[in-house]
Structure formats: C-alpha cells, structure tokens
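As a warm-up, study this chain.
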Amino acid sequence: MATLQTNEFEIQPKKSLVSKFFRFVKKNPAGFIGLILVFLSVCGALFAQWIVPFDPSEASLTSRLDAPSWQDPTGESQFLLGGDQLGRDLLSRIVYGAKISLMVGLFGVLISLVIGTVMGLISGYFGKWLDDFIMRVADIQLAFPFILFAIVVMSVLGTGIWKIIIILGLTYWVGFARLIRGQVISLKEQEFIHAAKAIGGTNFTIIRKHILPNVMSSIFVLGTMYIAEFILLEASLTFLGLGVDPTIPSWGGMLADSRNYITTAWWTAVFPGVAIMLTVLGFNLLGDWLRDRFDPNLKL
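Now compare it with the structure written out below.
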C-alpha cells in the first residue's frame, strides 16, 4: 500500500495578538499590572474634563464632608468617594489631580533626562578634565538634600507647577549622567567603536549612531522610575504648602486639606493617598519590567 508522505517542513501558524497578549500577561504579571495602572492614570489626566461627574472646583456647603454614597446610610450623598471640607466632589478632584502629578513627572524627567544624557555622554566619551569637572559638579549637587534645596528655592521664588518641574529637572540630572557615563566608558572600548574611528567617523557621529542607541534602554528604565519619584516629591512639596497653587486640584493639596478631618472624614485622606500609591506603584512595576526586559546582565 502506498503511504502518504508528510511535508518535513510544516509552516507554523502565526500566533494571534490575543495569544501574544495572554502570553505576556502570564510571563509578566507585575509588568501588566503596572501598564494597567499607568494607563488608567494617563487616561484620567487626558480625559478628565469628559469623565468626571462634577466640576472639581464647585463648592457646596450643604455637601460639606459628605460620606461616600455607598456608605451614606441616609442615601443623600451624591458623591461616589465623598465630599471634601468645601463640599467638592472628591472623585472629580482626584481625576483632575492626575494631570498635575503626571505633568510634573513627565516634564521633570524630560528636563533631567536631556541634561543628564548630554553630560553623561560628554563625561564618559571624552574623559580627562571634562570628566573630572562634570563629576565634581555632580558630587556638589548630590551634597545638597533635595527637600531642603526645594524649600529654600520655593520660599524665595514662590509656588507654581513649572517651578517645581524646573527644580526637579535641574536636580535629578545627576542620576542620568552617572549612569550613562559608566556605560559610555565601557562602550567606547568595544571593537565596533574602534572600527568606527578607523574608518574616519567623527566623535559626534560615533556618539549619535553607535553609543547613544546602546544606552537608550537604560535611560528609559531610569526615567520611568524617576517619574514615580517626582510624583511623590511634588505631593510632598504641595503638602508642605510649597508646591502647586491651592486652587488647583492636586493629590498633595488634598492630603494637606484633610489633616484636620482624618478622624471625622477618613475618605478625604484615604482616597487621594490611594491614588498616589497606585500611580507610583504602576510606574515602579513598569520600570522593573523594562529593566528585566532590556538589561542584558539579567539574561545571563
């Protein structure tokens, strides 16, 4: 009898997007949770004016310190997460507060990333007196506690979101510079860098085409973790009265306003605190996943 011959090389079916998604979730549950938390925070910041149920600045003394609607035994509360000391909807203010926190985190990291990347590339690639000068400036910068430095500057210049962003950006560039410097010192001794120099590549071309692409993954990982730190620092400064203007909804401002009502209206402090915790947790989990994904030392 004739036997059927099967093809030795069978075409493997392409995996669907759904199967790839579930595989990612199974292998990286923490990273997936981080992505979800960051996604929710970003959506809240971008679409706050369309998704909030009430005007975050509209006060109603008749709704002052209203309990959350699901906990109010009288059923008169119209606020899902309760009202604050001026009768404003806490949920609406928390959603709007995400815009302030993410703005500080993203723009602050962008400034420090640009300055730190340039300084780190120059210091690590050219070395000698440039390296000594930049690293001594970085050491001096690290010698000043950030909170003390920010308090002094904000006390002199006044409060404001852009002042916070600039202070954060001009303070935390050191972390990027030191990280990139160490990687550049290692990279510039590699054979492909010597080959690029041998064929006449300029310093600028070598840095742009060969060194910078090899350090970008580390830059993004550190930047993601710095966003979480900047959100905490902004909330701390605002809590101390040295951050965002009190008329603007912000998580740190809501915590400061709730100090006198923790025992009588716990929701005024708990829900803004939970918003800060979840957002910071999301960026930290995302940063950990990016580090595991791109750090070659963890794959050995």
